[in-house]
Each structure stands twice: as structure tokens, then as C-alpha cells.
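Researcher: Next sequence.
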Amino acid sequence: MTTSQLQLIALMLALGVLGILVADTIIAIQEAQARGCPPTGPAPNASKGRCFGH
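Model: Next structure:
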């Protein structure tokens, strides 16, 4: 493998992880809005099904 191939693989992995994080954040915001919560962004407790101020 050449250096450029390794850099490309590393870039693809980084983009994949970033994409998963972004998708997770979007899903958490949509679930919060569906429960009638304010869109607070990526809340640390969004995965537990709770909202800020509730």
C-alpha cells in the first residue's frame, strides 16, 4: 500500500464515524421534537429519552 492509499482509507473511516455521529444527533433531535421538547441539539441525555426542562 502506498501512503496516499492509507490516507484515503483513514479519511473514509473518519468520514464514516462523523456521518454516524451526525445521523445519531439528527435522530435524537427528531425524537425530542416528536415528544414536544425544544430542539436543544445533541443533548447528553437524549438517548435516555429525556428532555431538558421536563
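Model: The mean pLDDT is 78. Residues 3-44 form one domain.
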